[in-house]
Amino acid sequence: MPLLVHSIDLDFPIKTIWKWINSNFHCLTVIPGYIHHEVISDQQFVLSVQAKFGMWKRNVKVHSHIIQRNEPNYLQFDFASESNHIQGKGELRAKQLQPKRTRVTLSLEFSGQGAVGQIMNTLLKNFDPTQEITPELADAISKNIKEVG
């Protein structure tokens, strides 16, 4: 099961980060490939993204359920694609480094089933988020936090 872990330092207080995470799941809009999301409850949402694995692109609907929420620094969730070809769990941790600087760490553990899953598992083993998404994601998060306020 591939595991992706990535940290990003943001120039916001931890409480501002937590408010952004919990503000109708606005944090989902910065996910690479984001199409839209639907809030089912304060514990559940459905996320539509365009997944890219090498040359392969596909729109995927992911159902997610929040398992644990400890304000202001921890969120645990699980997720599965609508077809159940992709399943996993994740954690979001926030650590205040300075009064106006917070490190956010996202850990995602995936498993894929069938032909799609085999391709995904192989490609994710070699995926380096620091090379692929960090600069764009940091900018998108900062802009989104300012918009949500």
From TrEMBL:
InterPro entries (UniProt xref): START-like_dom_sf
Cited SUPFAM superfamilies: Bet v1-like (SSF55961)
Superkingdom classification of source: Bacteria
Protein name: SRPBCC family protein
